[in-house]
Amino acid sequence: QVQLVESGGGLVQAGGSLRLSCAASGRTFSSYDMGWFRQAPGKEREFVAVISWGVTRTSYADSVKGRFTISRDNAKNTVYLQMNSLKPEDTAVYYCAADLRPGAWSPSRYYAGMDYWGKGTLVTVSS
To answer: What per-residue confidence (pLDDT) applies to 59?
Structure first.
């Protein structure tokens, strides 16, 4: 099992940048695929990005492709989400997630969610 704690959220103007971090506990962090999701007020939670346990593969939602970058540092048990060119519609609570699902890399299987979740960090983008 893994515990996840997000940080780095805050208020930023449109066009600005933020980097979210997610610290994970557990000795097997490097074995988990890690993801970021978000939930805007009044909307359902949506997939943002995922990175494979092997640090070689990533996948992004179309709405953030080219602006957001997911990365991980297995030595620090941390996954990051660098968010650039932020827009007001990026305003949401951002959740870190982890999954230990076996099998070949298939990011679409995570679009609906992952097994373990953090409590979230709020990102507010002002216009």
So the answer is: 97
- Going edge to edge, which strands form the sheet with 78-83? 4-7, 18-24, 78-83, 68-73
Q: Give the gyration radius of the chain's Cα atoms.
A: 14
Instruction: Reduce the DSSP state of residue 9 to 3 states and report it.
Output: coil
Q: Please answer whether residues 70 and 79 qualify as being in contact, where contact means their C-beta atoms are separated by less than 8 angstroms.
A: yes
Cβ-proximal residues to 5 (8 Å cutoff; 6+ apart), any chain: 22, 23, 24, 96, 118, 119
**Res. 97 pLDDT band, cuts 50 70 90:** very high
Q: Which residues are CB-contacts of 60 (< 8 A; sequence separation ≥ 6)?
A: 48, 49, 68, 70
List the structure tokens of 116.
Answer: 């373990």
**DSSP class per residue in 14-81:** TT--EEEEEEE-STTGGGSEEEEEEE-TTS--EEEEEE-TTSS-EEE-TTTTTTEEEEEEGGGTEEEE
Q: DSSP letter at 87?
A: -
